[in-house]
Predict the 3D structure of the following.
Amino acid sequence: MFPTAIESTDALDELLSTPTAGVIKALAQLDGDILILGVGGKMGPSLARMAVRALCEAGAKRRVIGVARFSNPKLPEWLEQHGVEAIACDLLDPKQVAKLPDAANIVAMPALKFGSSDRPADTWAVNCWLPATICQRFAASRIAAFSTGNVYPLTPVSGGGSVETDALAPVGEYAASCVGRERMYEYFSRSHGTPVSILRLNYACELRYGVLVDLARQIMAGEPIDLTMGYVNVIWQGDANAMALQSLAQATSPPFVVNIAGDETLSVRHACQQLGEMLGRPPVFTGVEDDKSLLSNGSLGRELFGKPRVSIEQLCQWIAQWLTRGGELLDKPTKFQTRDGKF
């Protein structure tokens, strides 16, 4: 089904946006257009294109609209070429949000994480005030809202990760603002009856960014890899896209909550050893694995939306080949090793 290597950015985008049968079925059963807010981020373009492709395969004639400030001036043209209508909008301006077209289905992706320690007010505005604006503007819509596994505390590795019903115990101001984001969606879902799905993602990865890319680049540079955060969840971004779009059909009031995570608790040491063999460079380690890590149990998502199609071994092979060939990188580190919540 998948190639042994991904030779170009175009080929990568094609794979990331390939819809599953589950996505095609879910979107075919929903009425109305899809409006993707914050489409300019790492996941947004391929998720938007996947929605277009799924609707086409389902024979459903509906609009997919991507909204962002578009700091990348080339992105609107790319979206339009792939069937996504692009609308420039500062989502922090309620007057601009009010002018956006109505849509029955909303995918809310805006977030602020990196640099949040130095810009706490901006972080809270994006992560809490903006969701309130979205919920008020689109009270009559169905909303799939991205959140993060950072709302959970560090948990014992032997426990298999936090489940959706576990108490939230955020570490640091960024994670606290993410709990605030979820509370805004919950409040407006309950008060307005808006169907919402909340997606706790932990961590999406492709070939230009992600936990495995961070580790592979450290190996190639001969940099020591800190093993204190010794275990992590990783999921192919294409699989995360598919789960997120399918979650629209699960939206309820009060909100439906689901972890989007890989199907294994990945050992950082083992992943680095795999990558090192593929890259021909042994990893250098420092520290030892703590008995607690930031981990999410993704069993509910797999039960509802299907198992990830891409294995960790396959993803490692693609990444090693991509980096060896000098493939494009986004230079957006995950900072997954952070344990004090300061991003």
In short: The CA atoms of residues 225 and 285 lie 5 Å apart. The radius of gyration is 19 Å. The first strand starts at residue 34 and ends at 37. The chain has a mean pLDDT of 95.
